[in-house]
Amino acid sequence: MKNRTIDSFNERAAASAAAKQALLAKMKTKPTVTAPEGVVDRAARREAELAEVRARREAERAEKRRKLAETEALRREIEEFNRETAELEARANQKAARLARYAGLGSYRR
After folding, report:
1. What is d(CA 70, CA 62) in angstroms, rounded to the nearest whole number?
2. In terms of pTM, does the model score above 0.85?
3. From CA 104, how far away is CA 102, in angstroms rounded?
4. In the chain, domain spans
5. How far, in Å, are 10, 15, 18, 20, 22 from residue 5 at the CA level?
6. Among 65, 78, 83, 108, which residue has the least CB neighbours within 10 Å?
7. How many Cα atoms occupy the beta-carbon half-sphere of 54 within 13 Å?
8. pLDDT greater at residue 95 or residue 44
9. Average pLDDT of 77-82?
10. Are 5 and 14 in contact (CB under 8 A)?
11. How buried is 104 (Cβ within 10 angstroms: 0-12 exposed, 13-18 middle, 19+ buried)?
C-alpha cells in the first residue's frame, strides 16, 4: 500500500519548498564562536612558551660563554706563570753554570 500523507500538488510543492529552505539554512554561514576574554589562544600561548624557552637557552649559552672565558683566562694565567717559572729556572741554571765556571777559574788566575 502507498503512503498517502501528502495528497494534493500544493501540499507536495510546499513540502519541497520547505525541504529546499532547510538545505539552504544548513549552508548559510554561522556566526563564529569567540573565546571568552580570559582564555588565551593557542598561538599566543605557544609564542609565550617559545619566548620563555629561547630566553632560558640564551641564558644557558651566556653562562656557558662566561665559564669558557673564565677557564680561558685561568689557562692563560697558568701558562704565563709556567713561562715565567721556566725563565727564572733557566736564569738560575745559567747563573749556577757561570758561578761554577768562575769557581773553576779561580785556581788558574795569575
Report:
1. 12
2. no
3. 5
4. 43-110
5. 13, 11, 16, 19, 20
6. 108
7. 6
8. 95
9. 97
10. no
11. exposed
Using the structure block, give the residue that is written with the C-alpha cell 571568552.
36
At position 51, the amino acid (one-letter code) is: A
Residue 2: per-residue pLDDT? 53
- The pLDDT tens digits of the residues spanning 40-77 come to 678 888 999 999 999 999 999 999 999 999 999 999 99
Cell numbers given for 106: 779561580
What amino acid is encoded at 19 in this protein?
A
DSSP characters for the chain? Answer: ----S--SHHHHHHHHHHHHHHHHHHHSPPPPPPPPTTPPPHHHHHHHHHHHHHHHHHHHHHHHHHHHHHHHHHHHHHHHHHHHHHHHHHHHHHHHHHHHHHHHHGGG--
